[in-house]
Amino acid sequence: MKNFLKWLLGTLGILVLMSTFGPIISSEEIQTVVPKPYEGISVDELMKIKYAVKYTTFARDYHSIGDFWMVDKKGYRRHRRFARSRIILNRPSDGICYKDLVVMTEPYNIRGLAILSWSYLNPEREQDIWLWLPSLKKIRKVSQASADDSFMGSDFTTEEVSVRRFEDETYRMIGEEIFKGYHSDFTNKTYHEGLPCYIVEATPKRKNWYYSRRVLWISKEYGAAVFEEYYDQLGRKSKTLFRAYEYVKDYPAQVFLECKDLRTEHLSVVEMDNIEFDKGLDERFFTQKTLMRSRW
After folding, report:
1. Which fold has domain 2-293?
2. For residue 202, which of 231, 176, 159 has the smallest C-alpha distance?
């Protein structure tokens, strides 16, 4: 009987965490209009739209399932599967902008590995970031200084996946052009050919960071960065990052990402599916307790 009660309580706890309750905040606190670039837009306003699209701050919440491949120069592939959830709060009372959770669900040996981040409305306040290591049963607080670490052993950094903000860089408008399209080595498809774009140069404010600058092609249609080139401290192009977008429930959503390390010839690919907006996620899901207690 004792074991049955223990199992029942544990099961109920997981169901409570994973259920979709109504949002804790009122609809007035959420930006529901998708921002769009406009003629004569300043580079700073354009980049603010870019980050709004990247972090889906126009929606109440976001959830997706994704596949993640890491490919070496010889073509050997390693596969991961993950779930990502985000709740957008924009709440002045405690200054929280949004909470984001990425959890690895496959393969079994890394199942449950997760990163939780809280971002704030005040640009002077650093994000709170926690990494859950299920094999060690430990939560590690991640500092902004280590945001250049590889994310899950891929060619993406933690910063690129979840923690970079508008305030982390300065910006210069280079010009406009029709994007020539991106041909994926992984899918053998060409994406976004003929897409009108702004071209922006972004320079990190941190000194001696892992890149000296990046050049972005930002879609006039989606308001999103579809292609980026990274340059190292010697001015050499070191990495490219492509993102394909589609509309889901009238919202622009990332559906495919491909990152190439030009030095190692490694490739990291993300394909998203089951994308959902405005599910009514519970804010209580985005806590350290969720990391420790949930069975992914």
Report:
1. outer membrane lipoprotein receptor (LolB), chain A (2.50.20)
2. 231
